Records
---
Amino acid sequence: MKTALGAFQDAFVDALYQRAAPALQSVTVQAAFEVYRNTVFNSCVDALCDNFPTIERLVGTAWLRAAAAIHARETPPSDARLILYGEGFADFLEAFEPARELPYLGPVARLDRLWTEAFIAPAQALLELPSLAGMTTSDLAACHLAPRTCVRWSWFSGQPIYSIWRCNREALPIPEELPWRGEGALLVGHAEGVTWHALEAGGCAFLDACAAGNDLDRASALALAAQPDLDFHDLLGHLLGAGVFRPINVT
């Protein structure tokens, strides 16, 4: 059952975001409340610009702030930690009419969001190569490689989203002859920040399978089904080197 304080807090939030709050009408008509509302609203817009720097580089500050203002009014934050704000911003951009001729904005925003998730994820031990020494081929095939909580990946079908995102993140010019085809991305959070890597379709399928709890034998089969020409040994070495997996639990 909601307390009187809880009801007041909910009404106050409704009033801040210009939703109906009859119980606070005497408060909301005051000039000081409008100043406070504008401060909160501007903080939301600032947070979206901070959380989606690649989008800002692609479309400019003015365009992004205008879009962020609309999104902030429609979808205010549900958490006081504004670094988490923007979970639905990629969906918003994909449905945003002024962005209709920029179909890559939504997917690029998803990569910005994955970067944030990798950055704020809690620290977790990683699988060290020496720990695999002595394991037989059958042992390895039956083991489960679980991605760490600070690892994010995604496959973007039909668009070179990773190349667009990486060039803007690294302040590099986008190649004029950029092939317009699907790409994957891998992001790994570390104490020093986040590293990013290109990832093929088979690599994304492999990590999807690992995250779903499949053993190495099954996960590798799914990866090869998604990309028959995949060099699986090269992929596994790359993922291990990037610090993607948790230590294996030996029972």
---
Amino acid sequence: MRKLGRNSSARRALFRSVLTALFTQERIETTEAKAKEISGLAEKMITLAKRNDLHARRQVIADLQDEAVARKLFDEIAPGYSERQGGYTRILKLGPRRGDAAPMVILELVK
């Protein structure tokens, strides 16, 4: 796991906010390191949402802490992947960021 220059609680909060943005907008621009970490977490969330039971719903809400986003994940996003066995996210490279030359990417949900 990448530390991303943060302590564990700040890293967890960062992951929560980026995951929430990914599930609401379905496509975000971020750094490559963050995208690689978030991608795996998003895959696990979608797999949980595909189960569509109460325990899975509670696990997702505990991680996201936004019930509206969890509802969208269970009602709109996960049913679209019912036939798919994984690979729900895609990373597209953009190039370096202007300020600090950090490698930037687009992280999106595969349709």
---
Amino acid sequence: MKATVRWVKDVMFLGESGSGHTVVMDGPEASGGHNLGLRPMEMLLIGTGGCSSFDVVSILRKARQDITDCEVDMQATRADAVPAVFESIHMHFKVSGRNLSEKQVERAVALSADKYCSASIMLSSAGVKISHTFEIIES
């Protein structure tokens, strides 16, 4: 996996993935930015949610669950000192579908957390407390 991050101006950077996709990172005006992009730590949080959501959807599809939507709301706390690392992340999955098995959804969330999501497992091994809940929405 490769990526490039290039300084644009002030505290704005352009990140490009090895697959050719780009994202703007910028800081708030208080730190000399223009608030035109995500903060790097926001990207890390979103990437973790994306990684875990990808797993949950894939696992449920393989289990032949009739899933129609998956959303994860995330709440993170960070240390008050520098470096302001994540201390905890809570992930709440809202899984929609028809006749979804609660056992299968619970299993998919647990497998992502314990076995498949590289991002959350890496953060956990660095001491971040990661918790998960879920709800099923009939559609």
---
Amino acid sequence: MPVRTRRTLPLNWLGVLPFAIFVTLFLIMPTMKIVVGAFQTPDGSLTLDNIRGLFTPSIMAAYWISIKISLASAILGCIIGFGVSAAVVLGGLPQWIRGPLLTFSGVASNFAGVPLAFAFLATLGPVGILTVFLKTQLGLDLRLLGFNLLSFWGLTLTYLFFQIPLMVLIITPALDGLKREWREAAEILGASGPQYWRMVAFPILFPSLLGTLALLFANAFGAVATAIALTGSSLNIVPILLFAQIRGDVLGDPHLGYALAFGMIVITGIANTLYIWLRARSERWLK
């Protein structure tokens, strides 16, 4: 008579169980509800009218503004963050700067929402500390110069507070992966510094840079609390339009709100998939 063996879950999987439950309850299930709701009518029947509603001029304009803000903050965050990381890793700055910088970047990359909006309003708002100082002490009126925190560039500047640190955290390991032997070999072959960066370093780092750009884009596109707390309804972007739909202030069809969220999921999903694919390609060189 064959002996029955009882299959048990390995104990080392128990540590992952709380995370799996958390992800299922607060990520997978809400996402599935949004996806299903985007293709349903209020009575539960299937329809494509909610998806068609995304192509109305006002909603398309909101998506376009959100894409431009996300792309602008991602590009600026990549450029500035790369410069900061390169200065620390390759620029010969004292090593004691690296630890505090990475620690601050870890904190600042997660600093968003109402606290971040309040910090920028208190600094660069209409009666912010820096705004008042420039006007009273230096005679520079930011309003007359065309700057408004509650605008496209104002929100982009606010997003840079967490975009730059996130870029620093991601690109620093990639810069650490550049082997000294590659530079020495290029110098032996007669390559100058700019030639080394153009022909060796940047081609190796390019997948990491492009992947990080995609991740920063997704990070900004999905930022909801900061945009709402900072601009309210003065800027027509998708997160604010979605927030208004949830509150029931503007749109009367909740399933159109599901479609708005579904469109955000698709866009951020494409950006994150691109980041994962490009990161995997870059790690082949940096191992």
